[in-house]
TrEMBL record:
InterPro entries: Iso_Racemase_Enz_sf, MaiA/AMDase. Pfam families: Amdase (PF17645). This is AtcA. The gene is atcA. It comes from Pseudomonas sp. QR-101. It comes from the Bacteria.
Length: 248
């Protein structure tokens, strides 16, 4: 048997698609699906690793996410290129601190841009010129209060703030469009110039378009904002119809 070895012309090889690394909570039931959906539409690959998370969701259990960041990052394509990394927890980002998260990720993957849903939402609101939001969080009041501080620290005001009091990711994934419609109807949105729906495991991606029609306001969600900001960091624009003014 003859064996033939063929050389590969690396310079003329097909260029890989952009790749976003996603660090998802072990308990998150929706963020991976949302990112894959947006990634397929935008021509971007998504690779996911998971990080341990205890229930119920409290400031204390969310703070412990910090202990697992390094090991989680090491599992994100260690021998291949990543164009950006998303730490996919809104409340955890607020509690740990975006700067500390970015520092830990960059220690393992230096030079790769890093974002998280809280920071991304602030950047999305700035991009749209919005500075007074109606803030909706599925968490308990203490977690919601800390999460909203990322916005107030950035100079964003609140027309109103509401929380649902839920304590697990499975519970948070449950409320549907009608629940959010009722919550928004009960809130004071008269002075709001945008609506923010917090949490990566909230089933809010398909709510963006109908709620924008209902309210006449831009609707920002954790997953939508994080994906948008990751695209910004890698210098890519990809309008995604049906996912709101931010990605339109």
């Amino acid at each position: 048997m003859k064996h033939h070895q063929t050389g590969i012309d690396i310079n003329n090889a097909q260029q890989p698609r952009p790749c976003i690394g996603l660090i998802a909570l072990a308990s998150d039931v929706l963020v991976e699906r949302d990112f894959w959906r947006m990634g397929l539409a935008a021509g971007v690959d998504i690779v996911t690793t998971r990080i341990a998370q205890s229930m119920p969701l409290t400031p204390q259990t969310l703070a412990r996410l910090e202990d697992g960041i390094t090991d989680a990052v090491r599992l994100l394509l260690p021998e291949a290129r990543l164009d950006a990394i998303v730490f996919a927890c809104t409340s955890g980002s607020a509690i740990i601190g975006p700067a500390k998260i970015a520092q830990q990720i960059s220690a393992i993957r230096p030079g790769v841009p890093v974002t998280n849903p809280a920071t991304a939402a602030v950047e999305a609101l700035r991009h749209l010129g919005c500075g007074n939001i109606a803030f909706f969080a599925p968490y308990t009041q203490d977690v919601a209060e800390i999460t909203s501080s990322v916005f107030s620290d950035a100079g964003i005001r609140f027309a109103d703030r509401m929380c649902f009091g839920l304590q697990s990711d499975v519970e948070i994934a449950t409320p549907g469009l009608e629940h959010y419609r009722r919550a928004i109807a009960q809130a004071d949105t008269a002075t709001a110039d945008a609506i923010f729906l917090s949490c990566t495991t909230a089933a809010t991606l398909d709510m963006i378009a109908p709620l924008e029609v209902q309210t006449g306001l831009p609707v920002i969600t954790s997953n939508q904002a994080a994906f948008w900001h990751a695209l910004q960091l890698i210098g890519r624009t990809a309008p995604l119809p049906g996912l709101g003014k931010l990605l339109g």
